[in-house]
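Box S2. Input/output pair 1.
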Amino acid sequence: MLSRIVFSLFLVAEVCVARSEPSVDESRMLTVHLIHHSHNDLGGKKTKDEHYECCVRDILNGAVDALLKEKHRRFSYAEMVYFERWFNEKSAPMQKLVRRLVKTRQLELVNGGWTSMDESCPTYEDMLVNLEKGHKFIQNEFGVLPRIGWQLDSYGHSSTNARFLAELGYDAWFFTRGNIEEKTSRSKHHKMEFLWRPSFKTMGERAEIFSHFAYES
């Protein structure tokens, strides 16, 4: 049986499993959570501006339009370098609506850095400046701070980052990339969720963070 994945602080869309037979074994049923989100690289085959013009603007326009039409819908977004640009393009009435979506957590701002950090090479100062820049925008515009770490396409996932997010008060951290042998083993033994304690001997529970190692197909 696959392990149940519980995203404790995410407001997500739940898919109900239809019961075709009255004798179904409920202990073997899964609760499936869908997290509607986008991951937008700051670099790659296209420049930052090209990526925004061809993709990101339309993604955010479409997502926010869908959220405004149905209150049960949720969407998560991480890269503030794009979100701030998009938000500043909007009219005052639309900005007010977006603030409402953030307040009600229909629109969940996760991670909150200027971009997602590539953990294989940055210094502690780089990580701090990246989050500080994005968090300053979120705090000024929405009066909140992200509580969930969201590193879907970063390499490394160092213990420094785990300790960093824990000390900043994040409640959980989700990431995908990692050593394939460890990922396969964790999936087999249903250990994709765990408490990461990078400095437990010296920092105690203050430096632990709930982590989820998402499996890519």
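Box S3. Input/output pair 2.
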Amino acid sequence: MADATRIAEYETKIAELERKVGQLTMKVDLLKKGARWPQAISITGRCQIMKLARSTYYRGRRSAAEKKALQHRIAELSTEFPRYGYRRVTPQLRAEGLLVNHKAVVRMMRESGLQVRPLRRFVRTTQSDHQSPILLNLI
């Protein structure tokens, strides 16, 4: 009698482990590059497999047309205000109602070659403020 119950317990444990192995195998197959997701798995399940928040799945991405329009507007601002860097361009875009991150503006300006070169400081090479006599220019 004790052997029969022990065998039944082992069989249920084996069945549970086989089910878990099947789930893990499916997860590994889904995480491989280029794998197709079956429609039976919900978005929540997919996000749990990849260990991501559901909000990550629903986060909006910019389309190619939106990116192009944003790059065009950044180029317009850079030609209108040549000394504007990303720190000034970003608030200007936000004031116009565009939701944009400063890092995206930096990347787009760098890719388009619109970065502002810093002004060179004037370096004084002669010290004229001294107590010594000033010699005549003999040339």
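Caption for Box S3: Residues 2-58 form one domain. The radius of gyration is 33 Å.
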